[in-house]
């Protein structure tokens, strides 16, 4: 039995060592996972006076983040979008101003969707926000300290201007969505 | 017994990181698992259907061998990405509309009316190693091959069982200048509760020995099937994963046919062999065997 054990070990170890010497294991040092996080808004009232809205959200609101938060090595921005899920005025049109700020009020981006028609997007497609490299860098800088990810928050703002048709009661449900990439240590 | 256990752990350690990656499946919806996981099925099939012979010669009396086979599967570029089946209105945030398979690189991010649909990254690998120990027993022109590895390592519980039967055809043909044999091979590999895989192969093989060197080749038909069983994790932000869904999907590998050429160097009891197989995924295989 001892000879058999020795034989098996002699056979196995050299070949395995040869294979392990490759770079395969390097690939498992970290894995990446994309996640998204959303913030809903309900715009309602008379189109002549729609009140700006803001809402604070945290990464911890995401199930995917919570599942992986103890293993995250890096977090970075991938994309942002604006979506409409409900709108009771089909002819509605206006300028949508979207902002994203840090917890301390530092602006991360401001985007204006000029002459936005919600019905062109509602349950049809997303309006992908085109961020500048400076804006992307600002978000990534805010996400840079992984030890603080659990506590940092974002404040999303929504302002609607130059709305037509005038003097019409409107209810529009919409949301801002952020896609992020997590680098995780397995 | 402890040494054997350690040796077995070392053997399959090279394969276990791939299986440790199974967490990624938690975020693959039922519709995408076929395409995301198919290259893994093909790789498993290409690996486990390899290394079953290094000569067509079968002892007419009694023979025994024990050895280890190492395989390296080459992943072609077209098995690294797939285009997912998405709800209407979705498009990639980049010009590339595809996402990574388990062996690909970047996972896709798709914007659409219900919010972002995101996919996990792959392993970003162009080749995957696999090592398996095996033993053969031959008697009167028929050889039985056995593989068995039970392995519990960290989060990975893996069990491999394989059996093959090879029969010499040349023994019935007087004065034939080459050795000819046929073989059937069956392997079953279970990994955690995630996957159960079965691999079946039939081959015809021929070899010719010149002093210490044997040249061999073969043609093989094979079939691999993996059943993935898992429950997706809830990701309310992802429209495809808004609620946990139980996924049970059977995925067939692309490995169907292969041609193998190789050479064996026999140094007494000690046998070294190397071969190369052309199929859906090319496989380079090498083995160390003690033959008695």
How would you describe this structure to a colleague?
The complex is a heterodimer of chains A (about 190) and B (about 290). Chain A is α+β, with helices and mostly antiparallel strands and about 190 residues long. Chain A has a single domain (about 30-185), classed as Sandwich (Jelly Rolls), CATH 2.60.120. Chain A has helices at about 1-20, 65-70, 135-140, and strands at about 30-45, 55-60, 70-85, 95-100, 105-115, 125-130, 155-165, 170-185. In chain A, the strands form two sheets. A four-stranded antiparallel sheet of chain A has the order 1-8-3-6. In chain A, strand 4 and strand 5 form a beta hairpin. Chain A is elongated, with a radius of gyration of 24 Å. The two termini of chain A are about 40 Å apart. Residues about 15-25 of chain A have low confidence and may be disordered. With about 290 residues, chain B is mainly beta. Chain B has one domain (about 1-65, about 75-125, about 135-210, about 220-255). Chain B has helices spanning about 1-15, 15-20, 35-50, and strands at about 60-75, 80, 90, 100, 110, 115-120, 125-140, 140-155, 155-170, 180-190, 195-210, 215-230, 245-250, 255-265, 270-280, 285-290. The longest helix of chain B is centred in the N-terminal third of the chain and has 16 residues, at about 35-50. Chain B is elongated, with a radius of gyration of 21 Å. The two termini of chain B are about 25 Å apart. Residues about 1-15 of chain B have low confidence and may be disordered. Chains A and B meet through helix 1, strand 1, helix 2, strand 3 and strand 8 of A and helix 1, strand 1, strand 7 and strand 16 of B.
